[in-house]
Amino acid sequence: MKYCFTHVCKQTVLIIILVSLANTVSLFAQKNDLIIKAQELLYSNPDEAIKIGEHILKTTANPESKIRPNLLLTRGYLVKGDYDKAVTFAFNSANNLPNISLPTRIEINLIKSEVLRKLYLDKQAKKYLQLATDLIVSLPDNTRKDSLNTHIAIEQIKMLLDRRKNEEALQTIQDVQNTYKTFLSTNKLEQRELYLAKERAFSDLTKFDSAVVYMNKTLVLLDSTLPNNLYKKAEIYKELGNLYLQQKAFKDSEETLFIALRFSEIINNPILLMQVNRDLAINYLATNQKNQHKVYNDEFLVLNTQVELNEQNAINTVFNMLSKYEDIKIEQAENKYTNALYILLSGGLIVFVIGLLIVLKSEGRKKRLKEIINYLEVSRTNFIKSKPNKKTTSKRIAIPEETEQAILSKLKRFENSQKFLNKDMSLAVLAGKFETNTKYLSEIINKHYNDNFNTFINKLRINYIIEKLKTDPNYMNYKISFLAEESGFSSHSSFATVFKAIIGMSPATFINLLKTERAEIKSKSDT
User: 466-506, pLDDT tens digit by residue?
Assistant: First the structure.
């Protein structure tokens, strides 16, 4: 009787284990099917793909299992043109776990680089692209390695095109086509990306005959690669409409841009919508259709403001998340260092070392403060004069010399005023005040100050508040929120983020160092 009872118990336990295992396998299979379904919808119905990704995240407890939905959601929000949310999922802490497979780590670094490149954070974008490149070396030679190498090269090419380094981009494209000729012959999606990149480069160089050739090659491969990719169709037809516009084929441009507009509306991407509305407005202006021009230009201005706000929020999110990640790394390193000291040294020696480190750190921070103040004094007087060295001979936007000098003169007066403290100041608003277009203004700021518009404005605001802190001691006693409002920032957090990005330390740390410096100067003068 006892034997039968024991046997029944063992069978029961075995059945429970098998049922539990079967449920786990079934749940994993269901989530895998959902991810595949979301990937199929990504470029045609990104909203639905995002819903699926968010559902998977909510029902996943294991951090390692969150990586694939994180990548899916990052891509989904990139398709939607929402860079702020794309940043959130691209830099999620789960993506930094140590046991991630090598190909997935490469993919994570690639998508981080893409997000940062779109936000014009080139230094950080190149860092993650280099990390991906270094990791690929460890992969065996196969089709997957060729695919990843090609995607890295395409990302490098897009960065060159975005920065108008067209000749360098064309040379890189040629190198990729020569190196991965076999791979590209059977992988039309990557080949199509290279054709479109060539079209962009030739179009920007005003070599329209060559641009037309590669646009036609792109269109041939469009439906044969991803027939339901509305995002890519919107991008390609936008490029084609712009090419027609530059050739002054206004009717063809209008028809093509309306196709791009329809695809952009379906996926609801404000960046694509902004660009298409801008080109339509230019088209109608060129053909003297004033009413139509006003409609699409007004829509462009609304979308431009929306896009600029999202990009600024995304940049703030990037710096906050990177800062948080660095703080964690520093904390881990400090913990490891402290444990080693406890093992190797006596308590008295530890106190001595920590005291010494505090003194050295304090002196270093004081030295850093002096360097920052010297930098600000120099940069304030040389803000207009300093121009970047021309690194390439890439063709820029053709702006008449008279127009360029007029805009530069207005920029100089703008810097000497305090209009940059206006919270509503944007590229579109300033262009309107200067009676010019945003493209000219953005190009001139980039050319003469080596910055995009947001960085240009932020530097003026930070220089302004630093000058106030240096010349008026009362400002050191004000709250950070007051300093943020005084210098034209919309919030305490955005001010702190930008301040740290430009100066290298938080506002509170800078003020404390400035107080210490002044106290020491006063003490020396008293003695």
Answer: 999 988 889 989 999 999 999 899 888 889 999 998 888 88
Q: Which two three-digit tokens encode residue 351?
A: 């106190």
Of the residues 288, 304, 321, the one at which a domain ends: 321
In degrees to the nearest 10, what's the CA dihedral of 273, 279, 281, 285?
A: 180
User: C-alpha distances in angstroms, 36 versus 19, 43, 81, 139?
Assistant: 26, 13, 22, 25
b/e code 350-389 from CB counts within 10 Å (16+ = b): eeeeeeeeeeeeeeeeeebbeebbeebeeeeeebeeeeee
- On whether residue 504 sits in a domain, the answer given is yes
For helices 401-416 and 438-449, what crossing angle results, to 10°?
70
Note the pLDDT of residue 392: 43
Angle at 461 (CA atoms; ends 502, 475), nearest 5 degrees: 95
Residue of 451, 335, 431 whose CA lies nearest to 384:
451
Is the predicted pLDDT of residue 15 greater than 70, yes or no?
A: no
- As given in the structure block, the two tokens for residue 139 are 């992969």
Q: Hey, what are 29's tokens?
A: 């299979």
CA 259 to chain centre: 28
Nearest one of 429, 433, 431, 490 to 461, comparing CA atoms: 490
Any idea how long the chain is? 527
- Residue 18 in this model has a pLDDT that exceeds 70: no
Distances (CA, A) of 515 to 473, 520, 521: 9, 9, 10
Average pLDDT on 355-380 reads 56
Residue 382 amino acid letter: N
CATH of the domain at 302: 1.25.40.10
Do residues 266 and 372 both lie within one domain?
no
* Total count of domains within the chain: 2
Residue 289 sits at φ, ψ, to 5 deg, of: -100, 80
- Long-range CB pairs of 490-499 (<8 Å, 24+ gap) are 490/423, 493/316, 493/320, 494/312, 494/316, 497/315, 497/316, 497/319, 497/320, 498/316, 498/458, 498/461, 498/462, 499/462
Amino acid at 44: S
pLDDT at 182 over 70: yes
Same domain for 375 and 507? Answer: yes
The parent domain of residue 292 ranges over 229-321
Q: Is residue 266 part of a domain?
A: yes
**What b/e readout covers 89-98, taking b as 16+ CB neighbours within 10 angstroms?**
bbbbebbeee
pLDDT, one tens digit per residue, over 70-92 is: 999 999 999 999 999 999 999 98
Question: What is the CB neighbour count within 10 angstroms for residue 180?
Answer: 19
Distance of CA 457 to the CA centre of its chain: 18
- The two structure tokens encoding residue 57: 């995240």
Specify the pTM.
0.60
The predicted pLDDT at position 3 comes to: 52
